[in-house]
Structure formats: structure tokens, C-alpha cells
Amino acid sequence: MSVNKDLQNQKPKLAFMINLIAPYRVPILARLAECFELFILHGQMESNRAWDQGVVAGAHERPVWGWQYAYKVRKSGQLFDQRFFHFEPGYLIELLRIRPDAVITIELGFRTILAIIYGFLFRVPVWVSWEGSLHTEGGLDRPRRLFRRLIAGTIKHWISWGQTSTEYLISLNVSRGRILQIQNCVDESWYVKPVAPAISVFPKPVILHVGQIIARKGVAELVRAAAALQSEGANFSLVFVGDGPDLVGLKALAAQLDVKNLHFYPVQAAEAMPAFYRSADVLVFPTMHDVWGLVANEAVLSGLIVLCSKHAGCAKELFSAECIFEPASPEEFLTAFRKAVAGKLPSSDSGKIKTIREVAEMIIAEVKAALLNAKQAE
User: Fold this and answer.
1) pTM of whole model > 0.85?
2) CA 183, 276, 329 angle in degrees (round to 5)?
């Protein structure tokens, strides 16, 4: 193992390999930049993102050379999701140019293969950061499952972004002792401070959905549940904040079902969202497929009750059983939605959410300990 600098006198170099710099990752990366000479290697912005690449103070940002391929996932003939494959050899070029002392790479793909090659050649520790769950990865074909099992055996250090991610890694025969389990998080300071509501809609309660308007998010199921509950005489408002390929179709479905008190707002800047959360009483997160679901964190920190799909990675980690439901079951969705509108769900517990600082310090301690152990072993 070769460490480029004396850990006691100078910051070691840390390369963070990521597909794009999401705004919610910026505070964690900024804290890493205080403790390491941080190089953020990233690819192109994905076309379905509603925000720009984040800027991390104190870090060296290096866009890498390569290609991005977008493809659509369909289920039952309907657009379910849009995903991206990144083929960017420039990651390895930058690693060879920077010569970091440690590497963190996101996901199990081409980027991670390059990180493993670099780590092997220069005896540098590599952490693979993983978010997927048994549910989100359940549709993989056999070759990809075999590839992941094979490559998992070569990786010594893992970072999992929650319990469901840890469960998936264990299914690949990764031992629990090799996994640093953290948690997906947002900058809590944005949401805990009081702000005036962005909108005022009636009747109350106000039920909120935040996110892409696409089949994967369970938006059609939410509109159907709202129509069914209104047919029973329930009175409430339903607010959507977001955009996506299914927006026109969703509005048509709502009109067909005669959903009342329905409001649509476009994608908002991140700094505007706390005021939207303060305008609502309940967040409904009916996703069919999400590795975590940061809108749930945001809503809890804003003081909302959350009704969360069982298919969100955050569900069991953040919410009690009464607040978790199966969105694909109309009967179960309606029962849970009825309780939410009637105010019969328990309040969300913000104490279950790890802070940005806690998560960053866990990563910092892990990397520093590995570098120190390696130096002592020289």
C-alpha cells in the first residue's frame, strides 16, 4: 500500500467517482473536502434531472470523458422509468493523473470496474457506495446477477445507504463486517426552520405528492385512490409538485375520474420546497420503485405525516407499520389513504433520520482508519 502523503501533516487525496453531483450530496461532499484533498470525478448531467450539477466548496471538480446512453423501461406497454448507462473511460485517466490515496465509487458498473483496477494496481483502498435494494434490483437478468456476485467478491470496502441496501449486499455474499451502513440524507437545516407556506388551498387536509410524474412513482394509483375516497364523501385537497412524461395523461385520468380539489405545480427550486411542505398536512409517497426516497426525509423534517410505499428503501427505516402500504393494491392503498385523510396516522419521528454531519463523519472515520492502518502496516 502506498500513501502519497503523511496523514499527520497533509490531507490525503480522496477521489469520489459519481455519475453527477446531486444537490443533496453537496453538504456531505463539502465536509469530506474539509478533511481530504477531494477530487470529484463526474459524468454528464442526465437529461431527466430537474436541477443542475452541484458545486462543492473546497473540492476539485473533474468532468470525465465518455458517453451516456439513455433507455426507457416499459411495463405492460407503459413507460415506467427512464434510466441511463454510463460508459466513461475518462474516470481511469483522471485517477492515473490524480493518483489518489483512496477512492469512493458509486454503484456496480463500468465506473466501479475502473476504480477496482486502479486500486489493485496501486494498492489503494476502494469503497463501493451502494443504494439499491432487493426490490429495486429484483428485475435484473441472469448475466448481470452473476456479474455482480463475481465483482462483489473482489471488493473489500462497502458503503450502503440504508438497511435495505445492506440487505442486498448481503444477498451477494458480502459479509456485514465489510459494510459501512449510513443513510440517505438531506440538508436538514433547510427544512427545520420555520417558513411561510407557499400556497393556500382548501379544503383541508392538504395531501401532497412531490416528485416526477411518471408511472414508477405510483401517481396514477394515487389519483385513483383519491377518486375512490372522494366518492365516499371525504373532503380534501390533493397537490402535485413536479413534472414528467405522464403529466398530460395523469391530468386526463383525474378529469375522467372527476377528482376534485386537485392542484398541479411545476418542479420547484430546492430552496422553494420547504415552503411547499409547510403548505401541506400529509405527504403521500406511493412509489413502485425507489432506492430510498429523499422527499420522505424532507417531509418528516418539515413536520408532515408521511404515508410511504413499502417499495421505498426508506420505508421500514423511517416509518412505523401503520404508515407503510402497498400502492399496487387498490384496496390497501384506499385503506391507508382513508386513515391519512382522517388524521389517524401517527406522527413521523424525525429522530430516525441521520443528519448530514453524522453521515459525513461516519465516512470520514472509515476512510481515515483504513489509511492509518495501511500506513502502520508499511
Assistant:
1) yes
2) 65
Task: For residues 309 and 191, give the distance between their C-alpha atoms in angstroms, rounded to a whole number.
Answer: 22
What cell does 312 get?
A: 421505498
Are residues 222 and 250 in contact, defined by beta-carbon separation less than 8 angstroms? no
Cα–Cα distance for residue pair 16/9, rounded to 1 Å: 22
The Cα–Cα gap between 367 and 115 comes to 16
Q: For residues 177 and 75, what is the distance between their CA atoms, to the nearest angstrom?
A: 37
Q: Evaluate if residue 238 carries a pLDDT over 80.
A: yes
Q: Please report where in the chains the cell 502506498 appears, as a residue.
A: 2
Domains annotated for the chain, with CATH where assigned, are: 13-185+355-377 (3.40.50.2000), 189-352 (3.40.50.2000)
Q: Is 70 exceeded by the pLDDT of residue 158?
A: yes
DSSP state string for 206-267: EEEEES--SGGGTHHHHHHHHHHHHHTT---EEEEE---TTHHHHHHHHHHTT--SEEEE--
